[in-house]
Amino acid sequence: MAWIDTVSNADASGPLRQMYEAAERRAGRVFNIVRAMSLNPPVLRASMGIYQAALFGPSELPRALRELLAVVVSRTNGCRY
To answer: What is the pLDDT of residues 41-52, one digit of tens each?
Structure first.
C-alpha cells in the first residue's frame, strides 16, 4: 500500500489550517482525500474549487444526482472516501 506524507490538524497553519477548518465545518472532519493534498495547499485549494463547482455550481442535474454520480465513480475506482 502506498503512503503519502500529510500535515496533521495540529501541525496545519496559515491557509492550510483555514482549509482544514472549512473541511471540518463541511463534513465534521478532514477526510483523507483533503489531507492527501496538504503538502501543496495551492493544489488543495484548486481541487476544492473544482469540487465546489461540480457539486454546487449551475447544472441541469440536481445536486443529489451529482452526489450519487460521485459515489458511483468512487466505488467503481475502489476509493473508500
So the answer is: 999 999 999 989
